[in-house]
UniProtKB/TrEMBL annotation:
PANTHER family: HTH-TYPE TRANSCRIPTIONAL REPRESSOR YETL (PTHR33164:SF43), TRANSCRIPTIONAL REGULATOR, MARR FAMILY (PTHR33164). This is Winged helix-turn-helix transcriptional regulator. GO terms for molecular function: DNA-binding transcription factor activity. Pfam families: MarR. GO terms for biological process: response to stress. It comes from the Bacteria. InterPro entries: HTH_MarR-typ (IPR000835), MarR/SlyA-like (IPR039422), WH-like_DNA-bd_sf (IPR036388), WH_DNA-bd_sf (IPR036390).
């Protein structure tokens, strides 16, 4: 007579899948992992690495789109800043664009040559050069907005309005936190 396997299901033995204490990995402290001064530092947790990576990708995409309308990123920044309020002083534009003043002066001179902006001494203070959009500059700004707006749409895809507001607020807080050090 053959031995047939028992058809009753076998009761599983209780198994403790918790690793022994020596093998447990403690949870990562997010501040420690982001702090370059600790041995727990992980570059993928470092906010400035992530911001630079994001800006690098964004600028690469934007640059390609702007090239189609014969515009570069520095000129686009100037147009966008002047699109908010124009005229503005060269220093104010440089500060808003996060570009040093001597570089901004060269950018503005190039844009004057291209007919995008005018530059003239301020009537109140001759030391200040006021930069203003020309009609050609206004038209180029409209084109730039048209070609870059879809990129912004992709960038914020899936974010709720309150999440976006939180992001803006947190970035502002980080910027303010650095003010005493600069």
């Amino acid at each position: 007579m053959r031995n047939l396997p028992d058809s009753r299901p076998e009761r599983p033995l209780p198994v403790d899948l918790t690793p022994p204490t020596a093998c447990r990995v403690p949870p990562i402290d997010p501040f420690e992992a982001a702090d370059p001064g600790t041995s727990a530092f992980r570059v993928e947790r470092y906010p400035f690495y992530l911001l630079n990576r994001l800006v690098g990708r964004y600028n690469g995409i934007i640059e390609a789109r702007l090239r189609t309308i014969d515009l570069d990123i520095p000129s686009w920044r100037v147009l966008m800043i002047l699109g908010e309020a124009s005229p503005r002083g060269t220093r104010a534009i440089a500060d808003a664009a996060v570009i040093n003043l001597s570089t901004m002066t060269r950018i503005v001179q190039r844009m004057v040559g291209a007919g995008l902006v005018t530059a003239a001494s301020s009537p109140e203070d001759a030391r200040i050069t006021l930069v203003d959009l020309t009609p050609v500059g206004q038209a180029r700004l409209a084109e730039a907005r048209r070609v870059t707006a879809p990129i912004f749409g992709h960038l914020v895809q899936g974010f709720a309005a309150d999440e976006f507001e939180q992001l803006i607020a947190m970035l502002g807080r980080m910027h303010a936190n650095l003010a005493p050090l600069s």
